[in-house]
């Protein structure tokens, strides 16, 4: 459970990223610590993160509910936590959630009610938004499909498998 500067900076930056994603900074820090360390108890996570027991506990619950981590046995009387979801898996989950939960419903409202837009310029802009969404959705669906198909490859194998 070394608290080297590389691990601390990784945890800090992952915490900032998960905060921007709306997941909370502590979630990213706790998950980052587990990604680097492999297994840790809640007490170890409190120590390495600097967060309170309550905040680490709620972060672990959030991560467990979404399949990022799980409890895997005990170290003495303390539960051990391990990461389940890889970095690539989390990116896949984030992209899927962003599109399905955040963007698609907004575009569906616009698409379903476009007939209510009376101003010709605004209607044209709405049609452009819908088309841009459809293109973006095609890009993201393609990316997610590639990620799912190839996420277990080593980097060298992935570079050979990708169409770039």
Task: Considering the chains and any ligands shown, give keywords for the structure.
single chain, 164 residues, 2 domains, Arc Repressor Mutant, subunit A, mainly alpha, three-stranded antiparallel sheet
Biggest sheet character: 3 strands, antiparallel
CATH superfamily of the largest domain: Winged helix-like DNA-binding domain superfamily/Winged helix DNA-binding domain
Percentage beta strand = 5-15%
CATH class placement of the largest domain: Mainly Alpha
Write down how many β-strands occur, each being a DSSP E stretch of 2 or more residues: 3
What is the H-and-E element order?
A: HHEHHEEHHH
Question: At the third CATH level, what is the topology name of the largest domain?
Answer: Arc Repressor Mutant, subunit A
| Helicity level | 55-70%
Structural domain count: 2
Q: What is the correct CATH architecture of the largest domain?
A: Orthogonal Bundle
Strand order of the largest sheet: 1-3-2
Report how far apart the termini are: 39 Å
- On the 0 to 100 scale, the average pLDDT is 91
**General form:** elongated
Low-confidence stretches: none
Number of helices: 7
């Amino acid at each position: 459970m070394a608290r080297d500067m590389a691990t601390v900076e990784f945890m800090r930056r992952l915490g900032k990223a998960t905060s921007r994603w709306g997941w909370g900074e502590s979630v990213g820090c706790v998950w980052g610590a587990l990604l680097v360390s492999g297994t840790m108890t809640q007490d170890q996570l409190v120590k390495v993160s600097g967060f309170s027991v309550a905040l680490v506990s709620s972060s672990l619950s959030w991560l467990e509910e979404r399949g990022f981590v799980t409890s895997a046995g005990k170290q003495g009387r303390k539960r051990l936590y391990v990461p389940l979801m890889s970095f690539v898996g989390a990116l896949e989950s984030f992209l899927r959630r962003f599109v399905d939960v955040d963007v698609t419903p907004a575009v569906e409202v616009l698409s379903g009610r476009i007939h209510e837009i009376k101003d010709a310029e605004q209607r044209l802009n709405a049609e452009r938004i819908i088309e841009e969404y459809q293109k973006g959705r095609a890009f993201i669906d393609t990316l997610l499909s590639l990620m799912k198909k190839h996420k277990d490859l080593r980097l060298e194998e992935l570079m050979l498998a990708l169409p770039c």
